[in-house]
Amino acid sequence: MKTALKKLYSDIVEVSWELFKIMVPTLLAVKVLSEIGFVSWLDSICAPLLSLIGLPASLVVVVTTTMLTNPYAGLIVMSSVPLAADFSIGQASILASFMLFTHSLPVELLISRKAGVRMRVTFLIRVGGAFVFCAFLNQLLDITGWLSAPAFISLPTFEVTTSLWAWGVNQVQGLILVQLIIIILLSFLALLKAVGIEALMHRLLTPFLSLLGVGGQASTIAVVGVTLGLGFGGGLLIKEVRTGSIPRHDVFGVLVLINLLHSVFEDTAVVMLLGPSLLVILGGRFLFTMLVVWIMMRITSPLPDKVWRSMLTNNNVPEKAG
To answer: Could you tell me the residue ranges of all domains in the chain?
Structure first.
């Protein structure tokens, strides 16, 4: 027990430091950009895109902050964004889904590149997949009226103020909230691992991956990525890709999978603070990801080596892995 608690404390410190050293500069940058009018300009540019997925233009800064950093920073920004009283569970589900698909792009695109897939491909899969999923969901909700009740957002509401001091106090409150979330989530993840839920996830996912055409060693890496995150799964994949033991087709398939569906426990729990439907952001995203992987694996399988090398994978995948 003592060893487990030390490990948990070490994980909390490491995760908190990695997040805060990104979040604090980002929050300051967003404040500066807001003061010089860049955010307003960005709103006008991106508002039509958000309207396609049923979200108000005021959430542009939440979406872009999440894409550039992580969901935690997005939640802090979300806390200071005024929302209409009729902001629905459906809209919360769309926002949460978009955040889950597109968060931390700079870091995670680089991880995927090092693992062997070209950045432009990964970017198109994640951002394009996010718009397709959210646009379809928006149309479904409009037609059926499903999830139209007001969302219950479990975030503190910070007043919009011109006072720099008040803004700073709001941000500190938000960072304290994030720290509490990290402690709770990592403790919960440690409990899941201790009771064997992580191993159960491995057994449940492996048949799906085999059905999609992702097999062998890549299946294990996929399960690590889905449960623990792209950093863990991608890091393991980078190590194995360098040996040339995993075929490039499996490298591509597993990266498509874990880019669209990773860290399902932590990330899902974080965005649940927005009040979305768990069925949508977990079940719907799982089914959508499986469909995308199945389609991509069948489209890319017959492509010639020249196309693979020039369009899909890069030189990080050894020739012998082809």
So the answer is: 2-315
